Amino acid sequence: MSAHEVRQQAPINKQITRLGLGLTGLLLGLFALLMVLHEVNNRRTDVEAGLTSLAGMIASGSEAPLMFGNERDAADILAPLRASPDIVQAALFLPDGSALAHYTQESANTTCHVLQPVERSMVVSWCGVAIYQPVMRHGERVGLLAMEASLRGAYRAMVGTLAFCGLAAALAFALSVPLWRRVASRLAGPLDELVDITRHVRENEDFSRRSVAGGSAEVQALSAAFNGMLEQLQQRDERLTDELAQRRQAELRLNDLAYLDNVTGLNNRHHFMERIDLALARTQRGLAGSALLYIDLDGFKQINDTMGHDSGDELLRQVGNRLTGALRGTDVICRLGGDEFAVILEHAGSQDQVQVITTKLVDELARPYLLEGGVGQVSASVGVCLFPAQAQDRETLLKRADAAMYQAKQQGKNCFRVWSPDGAAAPPSRQQLLGEALGQALAAGQLRVVYQPQVTLVGGGCMGMEALLRWTHPTLGVVSPAEFIPLAEAQGEIIAIGEWVLRQACAQLSSWRTVQPGLRVSVNLSAVQLADDAALDGLCAVLAASDLPCGAVELELTESLLVDRSEAMLSRMRRLRAAGFGLAIDDFGVGYSSLAYLDSFPITTLKIDRAFVQPLLQGGHSTAIARAIVAIGVALKVDVVAEGIETPLQADVLRELGCLLGQGYLFAKPLEEAAALAWVHAHGDEGAAVSTAVPTRSAPEVQAG
Question: Which residues contact 159 (CB under 8 A, 6 or more apart)?
Fold first, then answer.
């Protein structure tokens, strides 16, 4: 049987209902028929019995008229039959067969039988019953009585019986309909459930469904067998799914091993070779020019040797993240091995545009790295080769990019070089020139320290100075700290420069304190200095030689340094506090703001970043953040200094929020040494007058160890 033929058949519950109703109708019909036959038999028996009894009575009274042939008396004997509506005719016959008397019902139009003197006892037909009763006198037959009774009355009586039977049968049939439907549902429901589950499994490939059908033992056995089959199918499907997943994972793993670096997650050398061939093919078809950047990290071996290979791997991952974040999604970034990386800049534009991008990368990679073992510092030497302008095939391209990278290393590292046809490096960029000049800047007297006053917001008196480093180059002009500080950190110059700045600030503070004894100075501390124990030794020695009291000199740390909450970092900070330094968190709220490090580190000052001070007059979140920082400072019993105050209204708002100290152009710009001294003289009395409004910094409490 085809699937189409199976679908055309009625559902089994309907088949069971139809079959049950058919059987019920058949049984009710048979029952009604038997009832009718039984009623007909009873009616006929009653008619026959009544006719026989009546015939016996009339025959006993007809002996004399028949013996004497008296027609009148015979007619009189038949006359009482008029009272019996079922008797339609009667006759008395003499022994010779002649009729002595005859009776016919007046209302009878026709009769069913013709009464004749025959030798019969009774004749029954559908319309009537005829009886022939011999009339005997002392054992001798003197005549014959014949009578016919109609069955119309019996039929009329049966109509009511038949109507009752029909109504009862119809009622019984109607009651059987819901009964059979329930029976059909009871029998077919489990099968329907199995069909639904089978359809669900076929359509959704979901073998988790199970049958909960009850009913007969056979249905339960079928359901259990079906569930067992599904359980096996589910187990096989799960095994197959697991095997396919493992196979896909294996394929992905093989692909990763083939194309991805397992440390950084970047593309590996194999993938790089494929992509460089594609890039060369595109440029040879006349598409926009591209560039290859060879990157080698300077100082990576020292990270591995001093902090361990785990920290080295973490630094490589961070390098990969920085490259990814600084470049476009279409650029190809690969790790070739060790501390070497490569970048393919497709559609890179002109050489000037490539130099801008490369300068950005060099600066980005020179920033400190927060590692588990401390703060790491590396720089990058980058070689650049443009193609197809400077190379048309892979071998030439790789050689020239590598040669340019070695030129960058030979010329001071932390820079880039663009390959040139004559073998000389392309003109150095400003960043490269700065890197070369920075090494001689301190010895040449190009660096100087300026000071920005920190004042009380109640009275405006001078409470301290922040020492800020400035560099003016004879040919490059004024160099922003944002340019040269990362260079100094990358080249290691920051340690010597930072110690010189602290020495200058301590000397100035000693002079100023003759005018205002409570004055203090703050100096920025680089991540490179904090990670170098020898650098910390030099800072502590400078402070000790200055004879300044505890807390007079404060070192400002950026929040990013405080991500590292290792015991080594805590130990260094406790060491600085024990030496007499105060510790301030600079630009609080814009970096790694966590209350956890406030509780862990021996902080003495929080500085509200100018990003929250500038929009104070606009209300909103900045006001709420500033209020929260002040509340934290009060709770921790540390000073709170607001940076970047430029208007009196900003100072008023901060004062209302409870901030007692501030600095900014509203009070003074960074001042040269002479101007700073004059400013201290001019505002020293005001600072003394309001000193009681500012919390007094206590001596450091440092835990042993």
Answer: none
Cα dihedral sign, 385-388-389-394: positive
Q: What percent of the chain is predicted at pLDDT more than 90?
A: 25
Answer yes or no: are the C-beta atoms of 383 and 405 closer than 8 Å.
yes
Region label for 702, one of left (φ > 0), alpha (ψ between -120 and 50) or beta (otherwise):
beta
CATH class of the domain at 269-428: alpha beta
Fold classification of 14-159 is: Beta-Lactamase (3.30.450)
DSSP 67-106: HHT-HHHHHHHHGGGGG-TTEEEEEEE-TTS-EEEEEE-T
Give residue 530's pLDDT band: very low, low, confident or very high (50, 70, 90).
Answer: confident
Q: Is 242 exposed, middle or buried (0-12, 13-18, 19+ CB in 10 A)?
A: exposed
Run of H or E residues at 517: none
Beta-strand pair 379-387/374-376: unpaired
Is the confidence at residue 585, as pLDDT, over 70?
A: yes
Candidates 3.40.630.30, 3.40.1390.30, 3.40.50.720, 3.20.20.450; CATH matching 440-693:
3.20.20.450
| 611/432: higher pLDDT | 611
704 class by beta-carbon count within 10 Å (0-12 exposed, 13-18 middle, 19+ buried) = exposed
pLDDT the model gives residue 580: 95
Name the CA radius of gyration of the chain, rounded: 60
314 CB burial (10 A radius; 0-12, 13-18, 19+): buried
DSSP 518-533: T-EEEEE--HHHHH-H
Q: Return the residue matching tokens 């409490």.
A: 701
pTM of the model: 0.51
Q: How far is the C-alpha of 451 from the C-alpha of 467, rounded, in Å?
A: 5
Q: Check residue 639 and report its DSSP letter.
A: E
Please count the CA atoms within 13 angstroms of the CA of 481 that sit on its side-chain side: 13
Integer angstrom CA distances of residue 75 from 60, 78, 136, 495: 14, 5, 18, 163
Q: Is 555 exposed, middle or buried (0-12, 13-18, 19+ CB in 10 A)?
A: buried
pLDDT value at 112 more than 90: no
pLDDT tens by residue, 695-705: 444 444 443 33
Residue pair 538/703 in contact (Cβ under 8 Å)? The answer is no
